[in-house]
Amino acid sequence: MSNLLWGGRFTESTDAFVQEFTASVQFDQRMAQQDIEGSRAHASMLGRAGVLSAGDVADIQRGLDEIATEIAEGRFEWSIALEDVHMNIEAALTRKIGDAGKRLHTGRSRNDQVATDIRLYVRSGIDDIVQQLNRLRHGMLDLAERHTDVIMPGFTHLQTAQPVTFGHHVMAWYEMICRDGERLLECRRRLNRSPLGAAALAGTSYPIDREDTCRALGFEKVIENSLDAVSDRDFAIEFCADAAICMTHLSRISEELVLWSSAQFDFIQLPDRFCTGSSIMPQKKNPDVPELVRGKSGRVVGHLVSLLTLMKSQPLTYNKDNQEDKEPLFDTMDTLFNCLRAFADMIPAIEPKSDVMLEAARRGFSTATDLADYLVRKGLAFRDSHEVVGKAVAEGVERGLDLSEFTLAELQQFSDRIESDVFDVLTLEGSVASRDHIGGTAPQQVAAAVVRARAALETD
Ligand code: ARG
């Protein structure tokens, strides 16, 4: 069995360990359907070009159909001795249909074959991922829409800064995830090009029609340069970069969910089905899903670095190094898909505790900026009003009072410009309502943002 497809050149068979060491079939069999799809297109094109007889093409198509079914049903026997998915399938084809199987590889190399397979595989993977991502977008819009006027502290430096609405915070997540989707679709567009016909590296002397296979495989256009076509994996790197950015976003959201579901914040209720208990501490309800997603972001960033390092300094064209692209790439696809899926299920089920959030916003002097802006409107320079409010906050800290809990007379001790209308801006509701412009936190702006986003999502 060993060296079946290139045996002619060799006088001894491959070392048993080397055979295992160099094989990729354990992991590249995931691309079997794409490999068959590529072979179908190649064989049909060779038939139309007059390189293969109609009979051979028909036999090849029939054989590939059978193999596709065997693989789908788990009946196909993969052999390490045949190294990779490509040679396993080709050998099975030849076992089934005889010499016509040996003619399939005319005008082709595993180098353009594998470049084609990976592109097809990532293309369909992106489609599945974007589907989950869009489910998550829907979930975020639903959550934001239900809570456009729930007030919480907004943070900088994880210190209470200014009051915001929970819906506004969720819509910030939404924007991050939207850009991730855009990036993935741009990556899809750039990778959707056909390397087939580049053969080993220089093209082929057979009268092939690259446009024909390009069309058949749903690629947008052919890759212009044969050397580039077989050698670059920049599309895989780009996908992993996009995935790493998306996972970074998910890790940030996860971190907030972990913090917020702690007893110390107590801002949200995560449904039990996304949490687990402790085997020793009966009181525990651990936010496992966000914690795991946060953790998994690390491996995806690692895969990106793996692929960059794999490609760095590689001379043209194909090098066996490139076989190492698959495991990081596949794991990135799986991880991103699963994390988005879990998030799409979990996010719309989050219950904010509006009373706790409101109280937290009150305790943190989150309307101090509103008071400063108020004094500016009454004629004070901003730096002076900042100073005045700073003093009021210091006294509030000392007495355990929020600014809105001072009496008018007490407030007037800090500045005689303060009048009874000050309480309109010192309330949390007044504060958020006053940020009433596109992208601001006012409930009606958040509601409008949700409407705009939903319309955009429907047309995506
Ligand atoms: N298994 C190989 C890979 O994943 C297929 C291409 C092999 N080409 C070669 N010239 N050895 O990259």
Radius of gyration: 30 Å
Name of the CATH superfamily of the largest domain? Fumarase/aspartase (Central domain)
Give the overall pLDDT as a whole number. Answer: 95
In spatial order, strands of the major sheet run 1-2
Quickly give the structural class: mainly alpha
Give the termini separation: 50 Å
Quantity of strands, as a count:
6
Ligands present: arginine
Describe the structure using short key phrases.
460 residues; binds arginine; Fumarase C, Chain A, domain 2; two-stranded parallel sheet; 3 domains; 62% helix; Fumarase C, Chain B, domain 1; mainly alpha; Ribonucleotide Reductase Protein R1, domain 1
What does this 3D model show about the protein?
With 460 residues, this protein is mainly alpha-helical. The chain has 3 domains: 7-106, Fumarase C, Chain B, domain 1; 111-358, Up-down Bundle (Fumarase C, Chain A, domain 2); 363-459, Orthogonal Bundle (Ribonucleotide Reductase Protein R1, domain 1). It is 62% helix and 5% strand. It is built from 20 helices and 6 strands. It has helices at 16-22, 25-28, 32-48, 54-72, 85-97, 99-103, 110-146, 166-191, 210-216, 226-231, 234-260, 288-311, 326-346, 354-363, 368-377, 382-399, 408-412, 422-426, 428-434, 443-459; strands at residues 151-156, 159-165, 193-194, 221-222, 268-269, 351-352. The strands form 3 sheets. The chain has a two-stranded antiparallel sheet with strand order 1-2. The protein has a two-stranded parallel sheet with strand order 3-4. It has a two-stranded antiparallel ribbon with strand order 5-6. α9 links the parallel β3 and β4. α8 (166-191) packs antiparallel against α11 (234-260) and α15 packs antiparallel against α16. The chain is elongated and about 100 Å long. The structure holds arginine. Arginine binds next to α7.
